[in-house]
Amino acid sequence: MESIWEFRLKKLLSKCHVIVEDGKVIAFAVWTQESHFAAEQRDECPPEDLAEKFKLVGSRTDVFEKASAWIRDRIKDAGIQEWFTMHLLVTDRPFRCRGAAAMLLEEFVKEAGGGYCLVEASRMGEPQYVKKGFKKVAVMPVRVDV
To answer: Which InterPro entries match (predicted)?
Structure first.
């Protein structure tokens, strides 16, 4: 049986929505349709070989996994069986404020077809989601040391 990490990576890498202008990618988004995993498929941390492969060692993936499990539990408690998650929405800096992110977000909501949608937003992206009607349900401060 494949782990939740292998399953997620396959799904994430299988479909990326892209906006191209003059042959350059100016914005892209990655989202997936999700459902609950069986208890035996939940990994607390990624397998060592996978963590090493994707440079996850030391990146505190345990924190993100615990947050993800908490969110999934709240979704399950609410009786929601399937939902869409926006994992990543990026616009190249020179092309911001031109509607590319809004177009991708619109496509995300359209594909969800009125179903439940979950986004993981940065402070910078939050206004875009609020405009579309998303509501803040949890905040997870993350500090990135470079």
So the answer is: Acyl_CoA_acyltransferase (IPR016181)
Are the CB atoms for 82 and 116 separated by under 8 Å? Answer: yes
- Is the Cβ–Cβ distance between 48 and 129 less than 8 Å? no
- For residue 103, is it within any domain? yes
Alpha helices in the chain (DSSP H): 4-14, 48-53, 61-77, 100-112, 126-131
DSSP 144: -
Which backbone phi and psi does 122 adopt, to 5 degrees?
-85, 170
Q: Residues of 122-146 as b/e, b for ≥16 C-beta within 10 angstroms? A: eeebeebbeeeebeeeeeeeeeeee
Number of domains in the chain: 1
pTM of the model: 0.68
Provide the residue-wise pLDDT of the chain in tens; the chain has 146 residues: 556 656 666 666 667 888 999 999 999 998 888 776 554 444 444 445 544 555 544 455 566 667 777 787 888 888 888 888 888 888 999 999 999 999 999 999 999 998 888 887 778 888 888 988 888 877 776 666 65
